[in-house]
Amino acid sequence: MSYKIAVLSPVAWRTPPRHYGPWEQVASNIAEGLVEKGWDVTLFATQDSFTKGRLEAVIPAGYEEDNEADAKVAECLHISYLMEQADTFDLIHNHFDFLPLTYTGFIKTPVITTIHGFSSFRIIPVYKKYNTGNNYYVSISNADRHPELTYTATVYNGIDSHDFSFNETPENYLLYFGRIHPDKGTFEAIQIAKKAGWQLLISGIIQDERYFDEKVAPWINQDDILYMGVAGPHQRNQLLGHAAALLHPIRFHEPFGLSVAEAQFCGTPVIAFNKGSMPELIVPAKTGFLVSNIEEAALAVADLPRIHRRHCREWAVKNFSKEKMVDDYIAVYKTILENP
Amino acid sequence: MSYKIAVLSPVAWRTPPRHYGPWEQVASNIAEGLVEKGWDVTLFATQDSFTKGRLEAVIPAGYEEDNEADAKVAECLHISYLMEQADTFDLIHNHFDFLPLTYTGFIKTPVITTIHGFSSFRIIPVYKKYNTGNNYYVSISNADRHPELTYTATVYNGIDSHDFSFNETPENYLLYFGRIHPDKGTFEAIQIAKKAGWQLLISGIIQDERYFDEKVAPWINQDDILYMGVAGPHQRNQLLGHAAALLHPIRFHEPFGLSVAEAQFCGTPVIAFNKGSMPELIVPAKTGFLVSNIEEAALAVADLPRIHRRHCREWAVKNFSKEKMVDDYIAVYKTILENP
């Protein structure tokens, strides 16, 4: 291909991130996946980022990792640096939320924006204003589409299959994996495990201290309810792969449940509350169960033997791999580049 | 004149502000002053703003006054709205700090930016990057100029002389007028008054609660040290006009001391610590005194009879009136418009 693609990553964290940084991670996965397929890719990210493509950077380090940094300054210098050379690219792929859109009225290069979720209804007016001309929006699940916006495609986040190995024979525990926060249903997961009479392992950062202290910590006994702290990449693969099931009793419309896809990559089925993107991520009775409440979830635990773990793996590889994501984005690029 | 001028106000507050909003106030003073002189002015501000020129607005109300608002969304929609129609103006006068600069690489219209002070050294890189091309910087005092930037002019903030009436015969009190904050030297003002044996009236918002509790409140007895709360426009004129002197013992390099100019408008001399813009605002021994410490300030109080209050008024009207500011900006505009 001779097309020149600019991938605009956020500058909150390095690309790829050292630990946390989900948008930077997706931007990196796309940039590297395109390079592997021979595309001419320029990654706009922090100066300490790395890519097998070309790196363009004016901000030394992620503003979340740099005491000297001012987020607003970093953002506008980073974005304007790309926009001021927009005409040297055939396509810009924006992973930086809404601010770059407000520079697109001045450039002719088409801009694809992956909307990685809406932080607030207050940002909708920007997306509405720029839902036109050379702007194209991609949703990360059908569930996350805003009814007042027009989208070009849904492309699911893609996972590097090297990070999650298939495990045929699980151990006898259920897993909660994610931020400790009321939205994520840590308390509900504990109740499901108690009701089903299973051991529960809990892994994740404590995002809501008060919730942890009041609703989670009182149940932790390191016997049937265990808190494992935060897992690095290796432990994450172990925890997810050896679980009999991942419990995902969310209380919000999650745009895309990354751990739900990751668990299935390991062959681990998922019991999830039927909200947000869950129906797109789980095939009921084949790769997990979609339930409405704690009682139904506890009953689903008894049904786990009906699930073939290989089906979970196959479904995840087919739909949520990095390769699938890159192929889907290439299809979007071609639609725009070849049908201007 | 047939030139079309766009004045870009911030959208933190209404233009002009109801109470607080210093940058919005200056933007308003300039816009209205230009209209009075027959210029074609479009004010870009919140929708609840008003002007005798044309109002262009996409943000309903200042984000500091509107619970529904998101500051970042309001800022980028407001700025891009002007920039996307930049070519319909002969000149843009920016009062909105650094963010608009990052859109100027796409437009041909000259942009004058009044730098109303640097909130942090972290914003300097943006000013450095855009100190070129069709961008022109104006400082609000010579003292506030950053050594690495090039400026077109210094224009002092202009005060509406209707708001401050001359008073020949003051009462026997000293005045502290401003935010209660260590930078502003509230504690030092108290010590000066004590040492000089004068009554001190203190007026201003309590910006630093702990500083107020620990360093200011213990001295307040409503006898010789009085706290008057926050003054509205009428009381402000009364307090400033009837003071024997304004004490301004600042501990930082204040870019422009608005109350220092306002006091002199009323005929009230100012005793200030010799920092920042103070040497540009005060004529020593003629409109006040520049001192180095509490002792010198207390001695200066004894010298107050040497000051003719009419000289203070004359100096302020000549240098810090709205009319003077507008004339100075018109001179800057003409330099740019007529020598492209």
UniProtKB/TrEMBL annotation, chains A, B:
<keyword id="KW-0808">Transferase</keyword>
<dbReference type="GO" id="GO:0016757">
    <property type="term" value="F:glycosyltransferase activity"/>
</dbReference>
<feature type="domain" description="Glycosyl transferase family 1">
    <location>
        <begin position="167"/>
        <end position="300"/>
    </location>
</feature>
<dbReference type="Pfam" id="PF00534">
    <property type="entry name" value="Glycos_transf_1"/>
</dbReference>
<protein>
    <submittedName>
        <fullName>Glycosyl transferase</fullName>
    </submittedName>
</protein>
<dbReference type="InterPro" id="IPR001296">
    <property type="entry name" value="Glyco_trans_1"/>
</dbReference>
